[in-house]
Amino acid sequence: MNNSAGNTARLIGAGLRALLVLTVICGVLYPLAVTGIAQALFDNKANGSEIKDKDGRVVGSSLIGQTYNLPKQNPDDPDEAARPDPKWFQPRPSNGLGSNSVNTQYSLILSGATNRSADNGAVGGTCTEDAEEGTLCAQVIAAKDAVAAGNSTAGHQVEPEDVPADAVTSSGSGLDPAISPEYAELQVHRVAEQNRLDVEQVEKLVADHTTGRTFGFMGEPRVNVLELNIALEALAKS
Fold first, then answer.
1. Alpha carbon distance 97, 173 (integer Å)
2. Are 15 and 28 in contact (CB under 8 A)?
3. How far apart are CA 127 and CA 188, in angstroms?
4. Structural domain boundaries of the chain?
5. Are 62 and 47 in contact (CB under 8 A)?
6. How far is residue 5 from each of residues 8, 10, 12, 35, 72, measured CA to CA in Å?
7. pLDDT at 169
8. What pTM was computed for the model?
9. Measured between alpha carbons, how far is 120 from 137 in angstroms, rounded to an integer?
10. pLDDT tens digits, 140-196
């Protein structure tokens, strides 16, 4: 009986010592080491790829897209449609985003996609003007017309067929931070007019903020919208 109790006590003691040692190693030393290495070698990425404005204030992350909308006319109306602010470069649509209905204490936006297939609403494999309302094809056709109209100016007409795909389709997450150079170029005349800048100035801004393919062959050329708008704000105020 005494031997059994002694063995049990020794096992419990060994288990507690192992718990203590593993807690210190895995719960304290390892996280501190990883955090220290990350802060020393990759501080920007470790801190969330923060983007700061000219005053040094953190205004967002280079990995997460933002919206640039006008203030609501009726702030108490949750169903009021967002109106893009014409003085800013606009990101990709975020049709897949949902509202937070779980914890309404916080104004959170849920990331997501529409989950509609590329031929949703297509007739004979092609999106046509008579696509059924509510389908992806109908949304894309309507969005093309809206983007063309919204980016046309008195001296520059944008045609629906000139609108690139990323201007009318959302990404899988709905939070894509970048747009194609083609979509950025399409917005240049509208942005220049709204900010009273020369078109050439804004075109140079887009060119300066266009990133090529990773390692020269991975992905597509892209323009980070937040970084571009920060530079735009600085140029407009200069």
1. 8
2. no
3. 28
4. 2-44, 56-237
5. no
6. 5, 9, 11, 43, 72
7. 87
8. 0.78
9. 6
10. 888 899 999 999 999 999 999 999 999 998 887 878 899 999 999 999 999 999 999
- Distances from the Cα of 3 to the Cα of 7, 10, 122, angstroms: 6, 10, 79
Tokens of residue 223, six digits: 């323009």
Q: How far apart are alpha carbons 6 and 121 in whole angstroms? A: 75
d(CA 177, CA 50): 13
In the chain, alpha helices (H): 2-24, 30-41, 43-46, 136-150, 181-195, 199-208, 225-237
For residue 6, what are its two tokens? 């002694």
d(CA 143, CA 179): 16
Tokens of 170: 């959302």
205's tokens: 């801004």
Q: Using alpha carbons, list the distances in angstroms from residue 34 to 38, 41, 48, 64, 76.
A: 6, 11, 15, 24, 45
Task: Determine the Cα–Cα distance for residues 178 and 80; give it in Å rounded to an integer.
Answer: 26
Distance (Å, whole) CA 204 – CA 185: 10
pLDDT number for residue 101: 61
Six-digit token string for 8: 């049990």
